[in-house]
Amino acid sequence: MKRYLVTGGAGFIGSNFIIYMLKNHEDVEIINFDALTYAGNLNNLKSVENDKRYSFVRGDITDEMAVKKVFDENEIDYVVNFAAETHVDRSVTDPLVFVRTNVLGTANMLNNAKQAWTLPDGSFKDGVKYLQVSTDEVYGSLGPDGFFTETTPLDPHSPYSASKTSADMLVKAYHDTYKMPINITRCSNNYGPFQFPEKLIPLMINNCLNHRDLPVYGDGLQIRDWLYVDDHCKAIDMVITSGKDGEFYNVGGHNERTNLTIIGTIIDYVKEKVDPTVSEALIKHVADRKGHDRRYGIDPQKIKDDLGWYPETPFEKGIKLTIDWYLDNKDWLANVVNGDYEAYYDKMYGNRK
Ligand code: NAD
Ligand code: DAU
Fold first, then answer.
1. Domain count of the chain?
2. DSSP letter at 205?
3. Which of 2, 7, 271, 284 is 20 to 30 A from residue 205's alpha carbon, by CA?
4. Which ligand is closest to the CA of 231, given by its number?
5. What are the CA-CA distances from residue 117 to residues 25, 68, 103, 218 (Å)?
6. In this predicted structure, what is the pLDDT of residue 210?
7. Which candidate, 44, 330, 289, places its Cα nearest to that of 206?
8. Sign of the torsion formed by the C-alpha atoms of 139, 143, 148 and 149
9. 8 Å CB contact between 337 and 206
10. What does 255-308 look like in DSSP terms, one character per residue?
11. Which tens digit of pLDDT belongs to each residue from 92-122?
12. Distances (CA, A) of 316 to 191, 194, 226, 312
């Protein structure tokens, strides 16, 4: 039996990860530690909330005593740190909370794990590991050619990606200085169920369903490399158990598309399946994001060669699963924006019109 401390488990990827792990492994116990910010939603975990192997603790990863209490009360084998502020646009307008959560929070998680896991002789207990869930955005932006490998120089541009890069450097420092067992995963853009509707794919789905403008930043020809969330969960699962100590792993499935292509795919599916009046006429080009990265593209060869990981869900299948999920879960959507999507949308996007 392995006990996982999963931070940020009430968010998009964290909740998918908890569900994935409980479904695919008998011998795991998961403590979900989450502050429940605007992005955290315990409804994501309804399907597992009565599972005896799952428990929830509300807490902030920057809170030294709250994190210490979890380690004092439970023998933790693995930490998987998902907890973060994650929306690039919010980091442009409010950078400090990103530094606090993503940098200070990571330092606090590392420090508590180190204290709990260090033996009297200074070495670490056997079988423990700290996994930092990082992002491809730490590498910056690509031109038309080439891919991010694990040795691509770090070159973050937004306060979000700079805070994630800083966190990665702290994780590396705990490994280099104290020999703490760690891995870092750097994944490309995820999509799937439970993603907060401020991110491109759920935002466009919801706006199509609500006949709202589809706000395209700049020319819409920026490229992201999309991965179905379960494939990211599978990668994290494999890295925790089989990743070589101290290694970083890029995760992605060579699925690059422009934002306009993604939006076109969503329009076509919603039009065919739900509402024939939805069309490209809803697309509205708005002011570009400041410091907008042009292209991300992951080279996943290392995780494929070393751990045998591969993506299982082709985009054509994953995007349909995702849109169908949002269609079937309109209550979830109403709940995450406090029942008033209209007010939420105007607050977030009114100034872009
Ligand atoms: P999310 O915004 O959906 O969820 C973040 C979760 O963290 C929420 O449940 C929130 O309540 C919690 N949280 C925030 N601040 C906290 C704090 N101080 N203490 C405890 N909990 C706190 O995020 P996501 O999209 O699921 O991303 C999860 C992780 O994966 C992040 O570290 C992100 O950088 C990384 N990542 C995301 C993507 C993506 O496409 N979404 C891709 C690669 C990496
Ligand atoms: O690459 C991994 C990263 O992917 C994660 O680390 C981040 O946490 C996650 O938020 C995501 O960042 P992006 O900035 O790539 O995702 P977002 O959904 O915000 O935007 C995707 C692209 O779509 C980007 O080029 C901006 C554009 N966009 C986004 C929104 C919300 C629009 O054109 N219009 C929009 O309304």
1. 1
2. H
3. 7
4. 1
5. 24, 12, 21, 48
6. 87
7. 330
8. negative
9. no
10. -EEEHHHHHHHHHHHHHHHT-TT--GGGEEEEPPPTT---B--B--HHHHHHH-
11. 999 999 999 999 999 999 999 999 999 999 9
12. 12, 19, 11, 12
Spell out, as residue ranges, where the chain has pLDDT lower than 70: 337-342, 344-345, 348-353
Instruction: From residue 306, give the alpha-carbon distance in Å to each of 134, 227, 248, 249.
Output: 19, 20, 11, 10
CATH of the domain at 146: 3.40.50.720
Strand partners, 295: 223
d(CA 4, CA 61): 15
- Convert the pLDDT of each residue in 209-266 to its tens digit: 989 999 999 999 999 999 999 999 999 999 999 999 999 999 999 999 999 999 999 9
The reported pTM is: 0.97
Output the pLDDT for position 351.
58
pLDDT tens for residues 262-282?
999 999 999 999 999 999 999
Confidence (pLDDT) at 349: 65
160 lines ligand 1 (CB under 6 A): no
Q: How far is the CA of 49 from the centre of ligand 2 (A)?
A: 30
What was the pLDDT predicted at 334?
75
Catalytic residue IDs: 136-137, 160
Q: Which two tokens stand for residue 156?
A: 């973050």
Query: Helix axis angle, 259-273 relative to 315-328, nearest 10°?
Result: 50
Distance 13 CA to ligand 1 centre (A): 7
Residues 6+ apart with CB under 8 A from 216: 259, 260, 263, 283, 284, 285, 286
| Residue 220 one-letter amino acid | G
Query: Containing domain of residue 238, as a range?
Result: 2-349
SS3 label, residue 131: strand
Structure tokens belonging to residue 115? 């204290």
Tokens of 251: 């995760």
pLDDT score of 333: 82
Token look-up 């709202």 returns 212
Q: In the numeric block, which tokens belong to residue 7? A: 């931070």
Determine which helix (DSSP H) or strand (DSSP E) holds 331, and give its type and residue range: helix 330-336
Mutational pocket test of ligand 1: of 13, 43, 100, the residue with most ligand atoms within 8 Å of the beta carbon: 13
Ligand 2 centroid, distance to 278 Cα (angstroms): 23
